[in-house]
Amino acid sequence: MLTGKQKRFLRSKAHHLDPIFQVGKGGVNENMIKQISDALEARELFKISILQNCDEDKNVVAEQLAEGTGAEIVQIIGHTIVLYKESLEKKQIVLP
Predict the structure, then answer these.
(1) Contact, 45 vs 82, CB < 8 A?
(2) For the whole model, what pTM was predicted?
(3) What is the pLDDT of residues 68-80, one digit of tens each?
(4) Cα Rg of the chain, angstroms
(5) Of 53, 54, 83, 90, which sits 20 to 30 A from 60 (CA to CA)?
């Protein structure tokens, strides 16, 4: 689990990032979880936007993505989710 200080640090790092993935009408599926998992390994931290046509609640989508990928939810703000997972091979972010 991330501490408040670590979440604050990650939020500041994620601020300038643009969302890479979008969750739409289909919601979360296996293929999306696999792609996000691979992207987390490469980048560690990124944003996912939830489109207006997504039927599921943003908190449910965030939970599904975090569980499926083993990532931590850093922040849910508006229709954007920020996820973090420490990379095994390409560690770039050093948490405070």
Answers:
(1) yes
(2) 0.91
(3) 999 999 999 999 9
(4) 13
(5) 90
Q: Is 64 exposed, middle or buried (0-12, 13-18, 19+ CB in 10 A)?
A: middle
What sign results for the dihedral spanned by CA atoms 64, 69, 74, 76?
negative
- Token digits of residue 25: 């009408």
- How high is the pLDDT of residue 10? 94
Choose among 34, 31, 29, 71: nearest CA to 54: 29
Does the domain at 4-84 match CATH 3.90.1150.10? Answer given as no
The domains of the chain are located at 4-84
Q: Residue 15 pLDDT > 80, yes or no?
A: yes
The dihedral through the CA atoms of 80, 85, 64, 2 has a sign that is: negative
Q: Given the DSSP bridges, would you call strands 80-84 and 45-50 parallel, antiparallel or unpaired?
A: antiparallel
* Residue 61 neighbours by CB under 8 Å, 6+ apart: 23, 27, 28, 50, 54, 81
